[in-house]
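Session log. Operator J.P. requested a structure for one protein chain; no other inputs attached. Running the standard single-chain path with token output.
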Amino acid sequence: MDAISSLSIILKYLLLGLFQGFTEPIPISSSGHLVMLRDLLHLQVELTGLSFEILVNFGSLIAVLVVFRKDLIRLTKNGLRFVLQKDRDNEATADFQFIVFLIVATIPTGVLGFLLNDYISDIKAVAVGYTLLITGAALWIIRNLHGKKNDGDLTIKDVLIVGAAQAVSLVPGISRSGATIVAAMLVGMKRETAFRFSFLLYIPVSLGVTILGVSDIVKDERFNELMIPYAIAFLASIIATYFALKWFANIMAKGNLKYFSFYCFVVGILAIIIFTR
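Structure written below.
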């Protein structure tokens, strides 16, 4: 492999890592963008298997853990207090319940992911165009909603609905953050509650994908050859996810989700035109 070819591959993977990292937290579907970029950059051969997706997903997970570290530390401390101590205050009880709700909401994704993994991984770029239109329409529906529910007001029904929405987002083009936030706001959550629940819900799913994907990395025959491009994409995904998540938090607080809806409509239509053969 000559120097020019090596540089070209590194730049392609850098771009893919930045794209995945930037699009992971915002409601425009990172998986859908990866499918489209693979076709545009002709990376089908280099990205055989799931190693790349697993690594950049792990990079995004690290960024989410950093951004929500205070919430995670509080939930961990109060969850342990609830389990280990007999004298349980309201804060410990509320946080333990929140943890239980996160676990319950994760179940639909695990079940659907196990059943449909082979079908989901084979989706074509043109199909992503149509699923992006669905994401755009969902975001448009909730653009003006103002919920009233805080963490302590949630019910099992609420979190199961959000969990089901996350399961549907396994399909590339259906944004995970978009689907969960849309569902959360439709059941009446406040914007900040919907935002926090959505990304705390991302953690167990992403962690599960990473753990289960270790075997795919080990079996990847080209992993050693592409180790440097993979590492660059991994670091790029961490950085891009961190800043995109901070940016999205500000947009979410202002209620400007309609702009993501416009984006999904435009890119979805372009994808249908470009990838229809």
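Operator note: The CA atoms of residues 77 and 92 lie 8 Å apart.
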